[in-house]
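Hi Prof. W.,

I finally got the Lysosomal Pro-X carboxypeptidase prediction working! I wasn't sure whether to trim anything, so I left the full sequence exactly as given:
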Amino acid sequence: MKSLQILHQWLLLLLFSTAISATPFDTPRLSPFRRTVSEESNTVSGDFRTFFYTQTLDHFNYRPQSYATFKQRYVMNSKYWGGPKENAPIFVYLGAEAPLDRDLANIGFLTDNAARFKALLVYIEHRFYGQSNPLGSIEKALENDNMRGYFNSAQALADYAEVLVYLKKKLHAQNSPIIVVGGSYGGMLAAWFRLKYPHITLGALASSAPILYFDDITPQSGFYSVVTKDFKDASESCYQTIRKSWSEIDKVASKPNGLSVLSQTFKTCTTLEQSSDLRDYLDSIYSEAAQYDEPPTYPVAGICGGIDGGLEGDDILGRIFAGVVAYKGKRSCYDINEYNYPSETKMGWAWQQCSEMVMPIGRGMNDTMFPPEPFNLNGFMTDCKSLFGVRPRPHWVTTYYGGQDMKLVLQRYASNIIFSNGLRDPYSSGGVLEDISSSILSVQTTEGSHCLDIVKATQSDPQWLIMQRKIEIEIIEGWIRKHYADLRLLKQ
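And this is what came out:
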């Protein structure tokens, strides 16, 4: 068993030295929020109360160690709840690969609609993140070969089920319908929860959930193809400049003192050791801008404004740097490692990818504006074996949850799921983008970005976003009306 120090060194080595699509450790971010959503927005109102549920460590075995428990955090807001006598609904946010705090402050779909539905709001933290880690920290959990085996999506879904059964009993709310909501990985969890636990939840809103980005169902280049389209739609000249810049970076780097020249051109905080570090930094900027290309700032257009508006006579790299400045703002220097620093989310997600969440995101030859970087499953598995001593199970998600022939499976066996997507979001390439049945519905917007429909509504929201949320609300109202009608029939 590796020591904490060795584990941390391995993570640092892999995070800093590998290409974005060749290994699991720099997969484009799965989160409802851009990294730069400031921590100051984590403040929540006094209507939220925190509780801890004594959660079962292992829901699927009956060995003595499986009966161990840990404290799982959940948060409730009952300000608008109509109560059990009215069978008022319960809206549940399924936490994902991060502590719950930012979700409480920034996921607006629940708080914005609580009064309308007279809903109780419940937020459940994902096991092993935040205050719900059985060993107190992600480092200790990942070091422990046995403990990290309980760190997977199936166990997380069982956690949610156990908490919700407990709450309905405690609150005498057996007939209150539950609607689960999640975004990104949490959106996948919401859809899967409805499939696995239909007796507990009436329906699910799965926002920006790339449930088809497994097992080569979605083309590897799907993510980067959408990034490319976003930039090309914003500006053909910007797209062409970015496309040409990669070979120009390598050309400059190959010259004597070339890395120093690149470091000066891009004002890097430390001298570049290899040109791939700069390429990966730019890759991360473009991908993040596309994924969170939201109003009113529309960062893709901002970057292209910088690139196209570069000073007359600027060469390709000068224009690319102008795009960086447009996105990051004027700084004394630019930290090319800012996307790579270890965090609880990055470390936890590395394990989740090295076990089951194998999303083969890559790029082929000339199918995007980026250099070719195909997903290398063998390299992926070798890195995971080196880090954790186990190999990923790349086919398990589609075996356990479905994926192949998903349209047919959902049509036959599922109901009451909204798959919402914004088509500017690169992860929409792995989402469900068509209605499957009368209750498995796709709600999408051409201009939307990642998880935009479930973040807080603002006065400046465009009409198309307002309408997307309105459609989702009306669908959920229909589910709840039918639930109440079914209850009345049962009482007759």
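The CA atoms of residues 480 and 486 lie 10 Å apart. Does that look reasonable to you?

Thanks,
D.
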